[in-house]
C-alpha cells in the first residue's frame, strides 16, 4: 500500500482545489447556509493557510511523509467541517466523496487496490468522526457504508483501465514510460538490483521474411519467457521495438537469463530461433548512479557482449540473421 | 458527441451496481430511514426490472441509441428517487455523484472534455430537479452547484491522464493499442480514408552506430514530420519499433508521404540521412474490408515498394 508521490506541479492543483473549497465554505457561512460561526471559520482558514505555507516550502524536497501528512490534514479538516456544519444533516457530506474521487485520481496512479481500500477506510473514518454525536448516527452510517462500497466497486473499472494502460498492448509487459517510472521508484527505495538490457538480433529480418504478424508472435513469446525468468516483484519492460529491460534479483539475473535464447520460439509459421544480446549490470544504492547513467552502462555492457562473442557466420557482424529451426 | 458503447463486461458491472443500489434502498425503506411508501418502492423496482429485461433483449444487436435510452432511464430514476425520499433532505443525493463517477469512468475514454461537460450538466439537472419543492432549496442548490463544479474540476486530471495514456511515451503520437481502436471506430463511421504503412530502413544500424539515444531522437523527429503531414482530425500512430501508420484524407496521402524521407534529420550527433518504405492503400465504406485485412494490404503494398529496390 503506497500513496503515489505528487509531482511539484500537482501540489499546485492540490492547494488550489482546497482553496476553492475553503472559499466556498466561507461564502456559504456568510450567506447563513451553514450553521457555523464566522470566527470559527476564521480559525479554520488560519489553519489552512499554515498548511499551504508548509506545503509551499516543503513540496520540492520533501519525502513521502508530506503525502501522508496531507492525507492526515485532509481527514482532520473534513472531520472538523462536518462537525461544525451540522453533522449528519450537513450539506457538505458530499465533499467527502469528492475528496475520495480526487485522491483516487491523483494518488493511486499505479492501480494499487490496497491503496483504494485504505482511502475508502479513511473516508469512512471521516464520515464516522465528522457526524459523531447525532441521534440518527447509526442509520446515517449504514447508508454511508453502502455509498463507500459502491464507490470502491466503481473504482475497480478505473483501476483495471490504469493497469492496462501501463502495459504494452502487444506483449503485455510494462511499456517504456510506466516501466522507467517504476524503475526510478525502485532506485529511490535504495535496494540493490540487477538490470539487463536485451536486444533481439535480426528482428527486422524476421519481420521482412515472415511478415509483421509473425514478428509480433516472436516478441510476445519472448516477453512471456522473460516474465517466466523473474519473480513477481521484478520488472519486465519493453524498452523499444525489439529491446527489453529486465530488473531482477541482485547478482542472480545473469544466470536466470542465460537460457533465454536456447529454445526456438513457436509461431504460426513454425519454430523460429531468435537470437539476441544481453548486457547485465548491477545497481548498488551507494554509488549514486542516475537512471540515464545506469541505462547507458547496461547498453554498453550489451555492446561488449555483441562484439566479443564468437561469430558463427559472417552476417552476424551486421545485425545477424536468425535461423529457422 | 458520442457515448462509448459499453462492452458486455461493463453492462454486467452496470446491472450489478444498480442492483446493489436498489436492494439497499429497499432495506432503507424497510427500516424507515427513507420516508418512502413500500408500494412506491415496489413499483420503482418493477420498472427497473422491466428496463433491464428490455436491455437484455436488445443489447446484442442494438445501436448507440440503447446507451442513450439507458442514460435517460438513469436520469428519470434518479429524479423519482430523490423526489420520493426527501428531496433536499434525501440521503440519496450521494448516489448522483456516484453515478457521475461511474459514467465518467466508463465513458469519455479518450478524455473528451465535451462528454465531461455534458455529463456534469446532466448530473446537475438531476440534482436540481430531484430536489425541486424541498425546503431550503436555494442553499441546497448552491452546495450542489459547487459539488458538481468540484467534480468536473477533479475529473480534468483524469481526462488529462487518459489523453496522455493514448500516446506513445517516446514519440507522443498514438500508440498501437489506442490507434487501432480509433481506426476501427473510424471504419464504423463509414467515411473513406487513405492509410499508409511507413517503415524506417536501417534503424537498427542507426541504433548500433550512434547509440539508442540518437535512435530515439530520429524516431521523435520522424513522428513530428508525419504529424505535420496530416490534418488535425487525421491519425499518426507508432505501430511498432520503427513502423508508423498514418491515416489521412482520401486520395492525397500518397503524395504527402512521399517527401517524408527527403531531408536528413538533425540529431545531437549531427544530421542523419533517413531512408524508408511506405505503402498506401485506400479504404472505402462499401468494400467490407476488416481492420486486419486492411493492415495486411498496406503491409503488402509496402513490400511491393521495398522488394524491387532491394533486388536492384
Automatic annotation (TrEMBL), chain A:
Location of the GGDEF domain: 191-325
Membrane-spanning intervals of the chain: 12-33, 39-58, 88-106, 113-131, 137-159
GO cellular component: plasma membrane
Keyword match Transmembrane: yes
InterPro entries: Diguanylate_Cyclase, GGDEF_dom, Nucleotide_cyclase, Rev_trsase/Diguanyl_cyclase
GO BP terms: cell adhesion involved in single-species biofilm formation; negative regulation of bacterial-type flagellum-dependent cell motility
Pfam families: GGDEF (PF00990)
Record-linked SUPFAM superfamilies: Nucleotide cyclase
Keywords: Membrane, Transmembrane, Transmembrane helix
UniProt superkingdom: Bacteria
Sample GO molecular function, one term: diguanylate cyclase activity
PANTHER family from the UniProt entry: DIGUANYLATE CYCLASE DGCM-RELATED, REGULATORY COMPONENTS OF SENSORY TRANSDUCTION SYSTEM
Protein name: Sensor domain-containing diguanylate cyclase
TrEMBL record, chain B:
SUPFAM superfamilies: Nucleotide cyclase
Domain of life according to the entry: Bacteria
Residue intervals of the GGDEF domain: 191-312
Keywords: Membrane, Transmembrane, Transmembrane helix
PROSITE patterns from the UniProt entry: GGDEF (PS50887)
Membrane recorded as keyword: yes
Family matches, as Pfam families: GGDEF (PF00990)
Residues that span the membrane, as ranges: 12-33, 39-56, 68-86, 92-108, 115-132, 138-159
Keyword check for Transmembrane helix: yes
Molecular function via GO: diguanylate cyclase activity
Residues forming coiled coils: none
Protein's UniProt name: GGDEF domain-containing protein
Amino acid at each position: 500500500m503506497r500513496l503515489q508521490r505528487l509531482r511539484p506541479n500537482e501540489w499546485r492543483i492540490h492547494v488550489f482545489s482546497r482553496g476553492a473549497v475553503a472559499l466556498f465554505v466561507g461564502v456559504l457561512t456568510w450567506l447563513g447556509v451553514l450553521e457555523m460561526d464566522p470566527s470559527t471559520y476564521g480559525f479554520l482558514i488560519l489553519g489552512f493557510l499554515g498548511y499551504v505555507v508548509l506545503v509551499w516550502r516543503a513540496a520540492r524536497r520533501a519525502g513521502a511523509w508530506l503525502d501522508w501528512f496531507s492525507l492526515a490534514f485532509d481527514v482532520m479538516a473534513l472531520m472538523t467541517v462536518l462537525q461544525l456544519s451540522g453533522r449528519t444533516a450537513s450539506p457538505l457530506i458530499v465533499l467527502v466523496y469528492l475528496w475520495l474521487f480526487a485522491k483516487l485520481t491523483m494518488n493511486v496512479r499505479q492501480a494499487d487496490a490496497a491503496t483504494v481500500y485504505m482511502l475508502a477506510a479513511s473516508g469512512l473514518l471521516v464520515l464516522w468522526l465528522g457526524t459523531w454525536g447525532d441521534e440518527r448516527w447509526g442509520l446515517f452510517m449504514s447508508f454511508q457504508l453502502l455509498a463507500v462500497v459502491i464507490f470502491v466497486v466503481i473504482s475497480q473499472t478505473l483501476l483495471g483501465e490504469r493497469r492496462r494502460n501501463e502495459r504494452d498492448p502487444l506483449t503485455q509487459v510494462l511499456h517504456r514510460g510506466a516501466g522507467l517510472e517504476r524503475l526510478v521508484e525502485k532506485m529511490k527505495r535504495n535496494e540493490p538490483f540487477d538490470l539487463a538490457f536485451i536486444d533481439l538480433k535480426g528482428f527486422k529480418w524476421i519481420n521482412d521474411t515472415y511478415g509483421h504478424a509473425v514478428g509480433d508472435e516472436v516478441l510476445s513469446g519472448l516477453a512471456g519467457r522473460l516474465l517466466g525468468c523473474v519473480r513477481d516483484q521484478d520488472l519486465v519492460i519493453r524498452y523499444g521495438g525489439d529491446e527489453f529491460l529486465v530488473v531482477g534479483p541482485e547478482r542472480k539475473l545473469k544466470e536466470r537469463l542465460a537460457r533465454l535464447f536456447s529454445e526456438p520460439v513457436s509461431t504460426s509459421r513454425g519454430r523460429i530461433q531468435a537470437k539476441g544480446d544481453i548486457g547485465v549490470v548491477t545497481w548498488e544504492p551507494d554509488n549514486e548512479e542516475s537512471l540515464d547513467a545506469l541505462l547507458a552502462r547496461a547498453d554498453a555492457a550489451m555492446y561488449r557482449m555483441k562484439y566479443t562473442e564468437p561469430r558463427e557466420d559472417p552476417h552476424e557482424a551486421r545485425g545477424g540473421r536468425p535461423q529457422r529451426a | 458527441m458520442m457515448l462509448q458503447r459499453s462492452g458486455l463486461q461493463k453492462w454486467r458491472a452496470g446491472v450489478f451496481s444498480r442492483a446493489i443500489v436498489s436492494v439497499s434502498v429497499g432495506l432503507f425503506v424497510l427500516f424507515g430511514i427513507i420516508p418512502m411508501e413500500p408500494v412506491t418502492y415496489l413499483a420503482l423496482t418493477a420498472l427497473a426490472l422491466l428496463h433491464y429485461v428490455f436491455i437484455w433483449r436488445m443489447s446484442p444487436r442494438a445501436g448507440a441509441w440503447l446507451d442513450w435510452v439507458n442514460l435517460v432511464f438513469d436520469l428519470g430514476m434518479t429524479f423519482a428517487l430523490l423526489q420520493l425520499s426527501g428531496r433536499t433532505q434525501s440521503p440519496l443525493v450521494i448516489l448522483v455523484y456516484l453515478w457521475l463517477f461511474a459514467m465518467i469512468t466508463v465513458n469519455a475514454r479518450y478524455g473528451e472534455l465535451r462528454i465531461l461537460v455534458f455529463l456534469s450538466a446532466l448530473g446537475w439537472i438531476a440534482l436540481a430537479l430531484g430536489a425541486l419543492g424541498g425546503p431550503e432549496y436555494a442553499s441546497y442548490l448552491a452546495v450542489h452547484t459547487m459539488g458538481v463544479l468540484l467534480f468536473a474540476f477533479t475529473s480534468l486530471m483524469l481526462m488529462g491522464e487518459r489523453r496522455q495514456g493514448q500516446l506513445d511515451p517516446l514519440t507522443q503520437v498514438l500508440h498501437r493499442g489506442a490507434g487501432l481502436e480509433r481506426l476501427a471506430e473510424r471504419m464504423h463511421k463509414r467515411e473513406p480514408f487513405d492509410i499508409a504503412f511507413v517503415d524506417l530502413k536501417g534503424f537498427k544500424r542507426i541504433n548500433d552506430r550512434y547509440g539508442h539515444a540518437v535512435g530515439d531522437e530520429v524516431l521523435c523527429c520522424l513522428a513530428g514530420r508525419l504529424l505535420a503531414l496530416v490534418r488535425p482530425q487525421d491519425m499518426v500512430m507508432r505501430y511498432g519499433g520503427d513502423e508508423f501508420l498514418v491515416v489521412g484524407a482520401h486520395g492525397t496521402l500518397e503524395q504527402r508521404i512521399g517527401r517524408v524521407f527527403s531531408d536528413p534529420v538533425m540529431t545531437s550527433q549531427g544530421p542523419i540521412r533517413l531512408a524508408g518504405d511506405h505503402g498506401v492503400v485506400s479504404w472505402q465504406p462499401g468494400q467490407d474490408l476488416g481492420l486486419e485485412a486492411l493492415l495486411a494490404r498496406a503491409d503488402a503494398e509496402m513490400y511491393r515498394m521495398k522488394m524491387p529496390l532491394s533486388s536492384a
